[in-house]
Every structure is written in structure tokens, then in C-alpha cells.
Amino acid sequence: MTKLKLLYVDDERVNLTNFTIAFKKKYQIYTANSGPEALKIFQENDDIAIVVTDQRMPGMTGVELLQHIKEHNEDAIRIILTAYTDATDIIDSINKGHIYQYIVKPWVENEILQVLDKAGEIFLLVRENKRLVKELQRLSARLIDAQENERKRIAMELHDDIGQNLIALKMQFNNFCFQLESSDKEEIQETATIISSTLQRTLESTRCICQNLWPLVVEKFGCDLALKELLDNFSRDYSIEVISGGIQIQQYFSKHDQYQIYRILQEILNNIGKHSGTKKIKIQATCNEDSLCIEIADFGCGFDPPDLAGNQEKKGCLGLTTIRERATILGGSIDIQSCREKGTQCILVLPHSGALY
Questions:
Q1: Which residue has the higher pLDDT, 310 or 26?
Q2: Structural domains for the chain
């Protein structure tokens, strides 16, 4: 484990030496014999976790130093170590230096070590908390972007598909009304056929949009039938052969988990259909006593799998990251292996709901 950095400030060099000898095994020690020197060291090392300083030093007191330290980086844990117990010094160290602890000399090594260890824990907790807040902000921003992209997609589908069909229906209906006046039965029959066909396409488009928004078939019949329908539609829409022995898994999962599994496979299949260029996929589901494993392999163009942990903002990573996050929510994992021109394999492993809850 990497040692935390600690800055010790004292105008007596023997104290600097003794402190370093006592705590160098546990901490990476920096020393300074004046406030200005300490500030220079601190500004050159932003990741110093703990600052321990003597109070009474020529030129700049310990409290004054800690005030500057706090202005530069408020996360560093600040400790006053002094031989004096002047009430004014104590009050100033609390009110101005915002110290973590005020320790009176002569110090005992074990007692100081306990204080330093606790200070180190607090520093790490604060740093981790800030990291998590930033991660939450990043995820919130991505969620907003995803919502906006979904709204845009729905709007485009409504405009480009259903909207165009409705315009065509209006034109055909006007034509139909004109033909009724002319009593041309052949033209009336032809127009009625066109109207019927357009209505059917509009109905299918509406069902498709509804299915993408919320898979009602999962709620009504469970994910086994829903996944069969998903695979059938995928094969039809993308002209891709699906090799599968069937997926019989709903008995092992709660309804909530079935929705998540459906969404994971839906996203994987969408990626395959849009980007792989494959003519065939193979999907296999295996259940044992406490877990499910689903393997999906395509034989398309493949890609270079992004480092989802380190490059989540990279263009094209969002869909794969969403898949991984859904798997994590279910207590499972997904391994994505791909090579250019050799296809992609996704291995999804999930604990049964009974095992998870």
C-alpha cells in the first residue's frame, strides 16, 4: 500500500530528525524548519495528506501556516504540536487553522501514531467521498444525455415513420374520397389496399416503439416468451440468422430482474445488428443451481473493446457501459471479448434472484 505523505514543520532540526525516525516506516515524511519552506513544499506536493507543525516558530506561527495550508488545499489534515498550552494559541488554532488535533509536547510515539493513523483515515475518507460525488455528477450528466438521446430517437421515429405514414394515409384518403365520387371500383379497391397496407405498417411501427419503451410482453408472459420474440424480430429486421436452443430462464429470476436481462440482451442485439455486419449469431443460455450464463457470439467485423473503467466518455462506449452497469445492478458481470475481423463474444453471468436476495 502506498504511504500517505506527511509534512512535519519545526524550527528545531533535532525534532525534525526524531520525528522522521519515529514515523518514516508508516508515512512518507517531508520536513521543513520554517513556515515559508513548508508552504513551498506543500504547494509542490498537492497530495500531502497530513501537516503537523510546531506553533511557536520565528517569522510565521503554526496557526498562520495552517491558515495558508487550508487556503491551498482544505483536505489536508492539520495538527498543531507544541510545548505551550497558551489559551490564545489553542483558540486561534481551532478558529483560524481549523485543526484536527492540538497536541502538547513532549509527545509519546504510540499516542502520536494513533492520532496520525486516524487523521490518515479521515483524509482517505474525504478524498473517496469527493471522488464518489464527482462520479455521481458524471453519471447524472450521462443519464440526462441518455434521456435526451432517447427522446430524440423517439421523436425521429415518430416523425420519420409514423408521421410519414399518417401523411400518406391522409393523401390516400383524399384520393379515396375523390374516387368514391367517380365510382371507379378498380381504383377504389387499389386505394383501399394501399390504405390498409399503410395502416398495418403504422400499427407495426407503433408496436415496435412501445416495445422499445417498455416490453409489455415481459410483464404479461415473462421473459422467456419476450426473449423469443426479441430474437425473432432481430432476425427479421436485420436478416441475421439466429442459432439458439431457446432461453428458459424466467423461473430463476424476479420480474424486476427479467426486465433487466431483457434490456441487456436487447442492447447487445441492437449493437450487433447496427455495427457488426454479421450474417449469423449464436446464443446459448446455461443455468446451474445458483447462476445463469448467457453467451452471445457474432461473426462480424469486431472492434477494439474500450477500457470501460478508464474511458467511459469515449464515443461509442455508452451502450457497452450501460450493459455493464445493468449487469452490476443484478450482482453479476459481463465479459466482452472482440477482435477486428473475427467477431465479438459477450458472456453474461448473473446469480439467480433467490441467490441474490
A1: 26
A2: 4-107 (3.40.50.2300), 238-357 (3.30.565.10)
